[in-house]
Structures are given as structure tokens and as C-alpha cells.
Amino acid sequence: MTQAVRHDSMRARNLGLVLGEVRRSGPVTRAALAEITGLTKTTVSKMVGDLLDAGMVTETGTLRDGERGRPGTAVSLSGGRVAALGLEINVDYLSACVVDLALTVRLRYTQAVDNRAASPVETLARLQKLIHRAVDEARAAGLVIAGSTLAVPGPVNGGLLHSAPNLGWHDVRVGDLLETGGEPPGVEVENEANLAALGELWFGTGHGDFLHVSGEIGIGAGLVVGGALFRGARGLAGELGHVVVSPDGPACRCGGRGCLEQYAGQEALLRAAGLPAPAPRTAPEATSPDDAVATSGTPAAPGGVAELVGRLRDGDGPALEACARAGRALGIALTSATHLLDPGTIVLGGVFAPLFPWISGPVRDTMTGRLTAMRHAVPEIAVSRLGADAATLGAAGQVIHRVIADPGLHLAAARAVPAPR
Ligand SMILES: [Zn+2]
């Protein structure tokens, strides 16, 4: 290693150390940063100067260091310039969100569209329009997009989406089909359920070691252990929807039989309640990014699930029985998951969030009946506050956490941002 390379890698490491500490302890003075990180005051001042120039930190008044310490100017993380783009392709919608360095959600879009009727190329062309809109609006707000992660409804390893049975996609290099023209610089592809679990950790109710269950057309799960995602040997962990709850049950798209998805997936639920599957808008005007709905909170449950919730509120018998049956099946799958993984909390997200008042009881009863002989307590069953937004938030959050770990890679781009219009 040459001296120059050594110096560069040392500087990158120190920048990450300082910014990480500002995130954890801010507002914090340069003197306190030097004490915590073990770096010299001169080095800390240089690093803070570079981070101030890049708009990643901001000065926020004075603080005294300890009882006898001299007052110094405190610095905090700034969300004013650097941001990340979170994206999601799911079976019946596309969504995007922009999250800044302080993990504040700045923009959010959802577009209802039936991606089952489209090829990967068509779907990615639609997504591209959404990306352009998000990047343009972020730029108008004075933000630079440091990177992007795309959530997809199937197992991913090394950028390859192995299969998304509910979309009919197999072995698709999704990132290669996106032509973003360098904005954002590179799009990483990751499983939707994994990102939803991270979204829950950073923006929602997830804490400690927990399992997040994503109920969509398919059912996925993400396990967070010690603040990090457990991905499995090949990145394929968490396929809860294909855990068998009845060995002789109905055939599943995965090639197996009696999978959880056949009892508690969105289509199975609606069918059991006597409701048609939702028909997402596919008219040409609906595919324009201008029709994407900018949302400011958790969106209403999509199509058929909203109708199901209405019937549940009215005490409709078939709807209540469909939820009870789905809840029992989910409880059986989660009993197995608990024996295997011992999570502290299980967070029910996606469509299970709006259905929580009706589905959580049967889940809890099933688990309690099967687990209490061996355990003092069953895992807490909690509702996701993020619902369908969890995956896009996790996708953006993942980029932000990487920027904070290695801000040096993004200093030049952040410094070059023009003032907001
Ligand atoms: Zn299956």
C-alpha cells in the first residue's frame, strides 16, 4: 500500500468515525468528538470542516464540555443536502420515497398498477419515470441523491432476482434493466421483506431481535438480530409465505403444497371473504408518473383490502371467518418460526397492518396454545405503523446508513449541489 492510499483510507475511516458519532451523540462539540473518537482535535476540526462544506452536518449553538470545560460550538447531523431514494416494485403498485441524512422522509409517491400484466422491461420503464420525478423534485429542494435501493418481491442474491412467482419473473438482473443516466448513481436491488424489516428498525416499531412479517400478494419476513438483517447463506432467508402449514394443502406457485401464502396471502384472504381480487388501474393515463399519488402518511390499504376492512367493520360473517382462518394459519407458521428463531417481537406489516384488529387475536391464540407448555412467554405481536411504506423506507434508510459509514465517497457530489430554487 502506498503512503497516499494509506492516507486516503485513513481519512475515509476518520470521516465515517466522526459522522457516525455526530449521528449518535449530536449535538456535540469538536472537543467532545475528539475525546469520544480518540482522534486529535486538529483532525476532528478538519473532518468537521469537510462535513460542514458538504452540508452533512450543521452548527447548532454552543455547548459546554463537562462542568469545567470551555463552551464550544456544537454540531448536529443535517438533513439539508444529502438524501437517498428508496424504491419498490410490488405486484400491484410501484412506490418511491426520498429520505434525507437525518432520516426525515421528504417525498413519497405510490402508483397503483398491475405489474403482473407487464414484462420486467415495461415495469422498469414505468419505475424509471417515477425515479426521474423523484430526482427532479429532490433537486428542486436542494437535495442530492447519494444512492438508491430497489425493493422487489422475491429472493435476491448478488443483484439477481431469482424468482418473483407472483410477478411471473425469473432470474432477472433488475438493476441492469434500469437506465437512470447516473441519477441516482447506481441502484442496488434487495428483497422487499428484508428491507421492510430494516424500515421497521429505523422508522417504525422494531427493536431488539424481531421478526417483521410483510403481508402483500405474497408473504415475506425479515429477521433482525443485533441491529442487523439476517440474510441466510444465499440471501434467501425469510420466505415465510412458503413455510408449510398443511402438507396436503392446495398447490402453491413455488411448486410446493399447503404453503402459508395459500391461506393468508392477500388473494387467498379476499377469495375466502367472497371478495374479488383488486383490479389495479392499467389505463394508459394511470401509468404516467403524474398519476403517482404523493402521500404524507401510511397510505390506505390498497383496493380489495380496503373493501375487506370495510366489511370487517360491519361485522360481515365471511370476512371475519376469512381473517380468523388466515390468522390461525399465520399463527401456525409463526409458532414454527418462534421455535426456530426465538424473536422477542413479531411485527405484522403490509396488509396485515390494516387487518391487525381482526387477525392478531387468532394469531396470538394459536401461538399461545402451542408455545406456552415450553415457554414462559410468547413473542409480543405488534402492528407495523409503516404498513405498505416499510420496504421503501428501509430501502432509503439502507443508503443513508452506508453514507454515514463512509461519507468520504459522497463529499464531492454534496459540495457541488446548487442552492435550492
Ligand atoms: Zn409456496
Automatic annotation (TrEMBL):
<protein>
    <submittedName>
        <fullName>Sugar kinase</fullName>
    </submittedName>
</protein>
<keyword id="KW-0808">Transferase</keyword>
<comment type="similarity">
    <text>Belongs to the ROK (NagC/XylR) family.</text>
</comment>
<dbReference type="InterPro" id="IPR000600">
    <property type="entry name" value="ROK"/>
</dbReference>
<dbReference type="InterPro" id="IPR036388">
    <property type="entry name" value="WH-like_DNA-bd_sf"/>
</dbReference>
<feature type="compositionally biased region" description="Low complexity">
    <location>
        <begin position="277"/>
        <end position="289"/>
    </location>
</feature>
<dbReference type="GO" id="GO:0016301">
    <property type="term" value="F:kinase activity"/>
</dbReference>
<dbReference type="GO" id="GO:0003700">
    <property type="term" value="F:DNA-binding transcription factor activity"/>
</dbReference>
<dbReference type="InterPro" id="IPR036390">
    <property type="entry name" value="WH_DNA-bd_sf"/>
</dbReference>
<dbReference type="InterPro" id="IPR043129">
    <property type="entry name" value="ATPase_NBD"/>
</dbReference>
<feature type="domain" description="HTH marR-type">
    <location>
        <begin position="17"/>
        <end position="63"/>
    </location>
</feature>
<dbReference type="Pfam" id="PF00480">
    <property type="entry name" value="ROK"/>
</dbReference>
<dbReference type="InterPro" id="IPR000835">
    <property type="entry name" value="HTH_MarR-typ"/>
</dbReference>
<feature type="region of interest" description="Disordered">
    <location>
        <begin position="277"/>
        <end position="300"/>
    </location>
</feature>
<keyword id="KW-0418">Kinase</keyword>
<dbReference type="Pfam" id="PF12802">
    <property type="entry name" value="MarR_2"/>
</dbReference>
